[in-house]
Amino acid sequence: MSTLYPQNNAARTILDLGGIWDFRFQGDENWQTIAVPASYNDQDPDPRFRNFAGIVEYRRKITIPRAWKDLRVCLRFDAVTHNARVLLNGKEIAKHRGGFLPFEVELEGLLGPGETAELTVEADNRINHSTLPIGTEGETAFFGSDNPGIPSVEAGKKFQEERGINRPAFDFFNYAGIQRAVRLVATPKQYIRDITLVPSMNGEVRYTVEIEGDSGTVQIEVLDAEGNTVAHGEGLEGTLTIEQPKLWEPWPGTPYLYTARIRFGEDLYEQTFGIREIRVDGTRFLINGKPFRFHGPCKHEDSPFRGRGSDPCVNVTDLHLYHWLNANCFRTSHYPYAEEMYQLCDREGIVIVDETPAVGMWSSENYGWGLGEYHRQILLDMIARDKNHPCVVMWSLGNEPDTDSLPDKAYDYWRPLYDAAHQADPQNRPVTVVGCQNRYERDRVICSMDVVLINRYYGWYNLSGDLEAAKYAFRTELDWWAKQGKPIILSEYGADTIAGFHGATPEMFTEEYQVAFYEAISECLDERDFVIGEMPWNFADFATCQGPMRVGGNKKGLFTRDRKPKMAAHYFKKRWAEAF
Ligand code: BDP
Predict the structure, then answer these.
(1) What are the φ and ψ backbone dihedral angles of 431, each rounded to 5 degrees?
(2) Which of 244, 240, 282, 245 is closest to 262 using CA atoms?
(3) Which residues are catalytic?
(4) Which CATH code, of 2.60.40.10, 1.20.1600.10, 3.90.550.10, 1.10.8.60, is assigned to 190-276?
(5) How far is the CA of 414 from the centre of ligand 1 (A)?
(6) Which residues have a Cβ under 8 Å from the Cβ of 135 and sit 6 or more positions away?
(7) Does the pLDDT of residue 343 top 80, yes or no?
(8) How far, in Å, are 165, 361, 451, 496, 529 from residue 430 at the CA level?
(9) What is the largest CA-CA distance in the chain?
(10) pTM (2 decimals)?
(11) Is the omega angle on the peptide bond into residue 174 within 30 degrees of 0, that is, cis?
(12) Best exposed site among 50, 148, 191, 525 by fewest CB in 10 Å?
């Protein structure tokens, strides 16, 4: 479903419903206070907030302004994690599956101008074999401490299950709730439903507009950054021409943005876009015909207090730290981020690899769980949401699936998704899926992608602490990739590092080891032309579920969770300053 990002303009009005809502665990009697948008998990010290698996309820009153007469009114949720049910005065009005993409519901016939109703949102944080990301159902958790087969431990697991437990098959805290904005949006009754823009470097912009209603023809006008009209057209689709177009260039170039102003009857929508072309040519990744090298750490949506909750201050601070680092990109590991982050990256010139929430598929059994159709739908919704952003240069179908145990089965699962992404994307961006450290020579999926993205932990999870052996092993693998003729991005590599923990001898967990680790891997990367990118894991320390491998979360950040640089951040700041 495509739902245009809410906009306040001469024709449209937004009423933001952020603030303090009522909250309770379903089944409880009493309500308490909770902030929206934010994950609920860190807003109360009661362990239930961290450990609960099930449905929580949010409640508040909403009123449609009397002035919104003769308008179409929608309730728009940017993301409710993971599954949502929306009720108005106790009556279900919408349901949504998946925790990282928007949905909306029209209020026509449900609530009129001047009327007030009680809005309830049920958010279900349960993860299992039918959700993306995946939760385990009894099998040994990847980051857990369960020893399979020991009767007493098995009994303990059963005890947990009877009481309801979430076991993530992924390495980030399962934050949940209303994590992004909720808004009432008013548009004219006959309205613009969707806009698709496909710009070319020669200044031609193909456009398609979808409308609801028949109140006249569509008018489209393109404005440059100074507000001058530089092209205009008419009709539901066509091609506009901008003379002497200014290109959208990744940082440190100028990410020049145009605005397409679309009018239809009483309605108006302004869609920003950038002119840039993406192409994979042999082992090169070209942006506007120029070879582009990706260098920037992967991220999470993760910060103190808010958990995964969207916050413009955190987003701006993070991107300014990307500039400070001389980084030019990130991957939205491991789910689509809040829309405001993409808008910001459009403006800041930070390039994005946009990833679905298909993470935790590390067993070949996943292919028997019937996830394919749901996965496809999420992928299409993500592309529909993000298709016009110049910052998005590649789609990632998912992170670290099993692709080498049953290579043909894996191929049959991933290939149709690859094709679907190409078909759905009007700009036909390159498509990838991020590979885990595996028997790469058996794999048919990863090497068939447009760009090969591989996560490698030589010197950390394997050959731990021995960087000479790590280099030798990594070079052995790179020799193999050299023969495949593909562009390669090292899409994760890193070492857990306790900020302030030092050693004259660089041993694991010290800041010195993190730097030595990155120096060693850089050495191998710098020898190979076909390596077109490096994305250290991770930008900042982040929250995970509890487990014997995690001391207060994942500590592979270049920054601490409160965004203080470790020594490795300074290492990359210097390395990347020389990389342009
Ligand atoms: C990779 C995963 C990532 C983890 C990372 C780690 O893609 O989500 O956080 O390992 O272990 O396998 O730090």
Answers:
(1) -125, 145
(2) 240
(3) 400, 492
(4) 2.60.40.10
(5) 21
(6) 126, 127, 128, 129, 166, 167, 168, 169, 174, 360
(7) yes
(8) 38, 22, 7, 31, 19
(9) 74
(10) 0.97
(11) no
(12) 148
> Which of 554, 555, 558, 561 should be mutated for ligand 1, with most atoms under 8 A from CB?
554
| Domain 13-135+170-184: CATH superfamily, name plus number | Galactose-binding domain-like (2.60.120.260)
DSSP label of 103: E
**What gap in Å lies between CA 438 and CA 456, rounded to an integer?**
9
How far is CA 38 from each of CA 118, 242, 354, 506, 551, rounded to the nearest angstrom? 21, 41, 22, 38, 24
CA distance 449 to 443: 11
**Contact by Cβ (8 Å): 284, 291:** yes
**CATH topology classification for 279-579:** TIM Barrel (3.20.20)
Measured in angstroms, how far is the CA atom of residue 170 from the centroid of ligand 1? 8
Ligand 1 center to residue 171 CA distance, Å?
6
Assess whether the C-beta atom of 492 lies below 6 angstroms from ligand 1: yes
Q: Which of 77, 146, 559 is nearest to 321 (CA)?
A: 559
Quick: pLDDT tens for 262-321: 999 999 999 999 999 999 999 999 999 999 999 999 999 999 999 999 999 999 999 999
Alpha-carbon distance of 238 to 50, in angstroms, equals 51
**According to DSSP H, which parts of 115-262 are helical?**
151-163
Question: Could you tell me where in the chain the CATH 2.60.120.260 domains are found?
Answer: 13-135+170-184
Q: What is the pLDDT of residues 435-484, one digit of tens each?
A: 999 999 999 999 999 999 999 999 999 999 999 999 999 999 999 999 99
Which of 421, 397, 423 has its CA nearest to residue 410? 397
Closest-CA residue, ligand 1 atom 3, reads: 171
- The answer to whether the CB of 215 falls within 8 A of the CB of 250 is no
Per-residue pLDDT reduced to its tens digit, 481-519: 999 999 999 999 999 999 999 999 999 999 999 999 999
Question: CATH 2.60.40.10 residue ranges in the chain?
Answer: 190-276
Locate 1 and state its tokens: 């479903």
Ligand 1: residue of 300, 537, 556 to mutate (most ligand atoms within 8 A of CB) is: 537
**In the chain, ranges of CATH 3.20.20.80 domains:** 279-579
**For ligand 1, atom 10, which residue shows the shortest CA distance?**
171
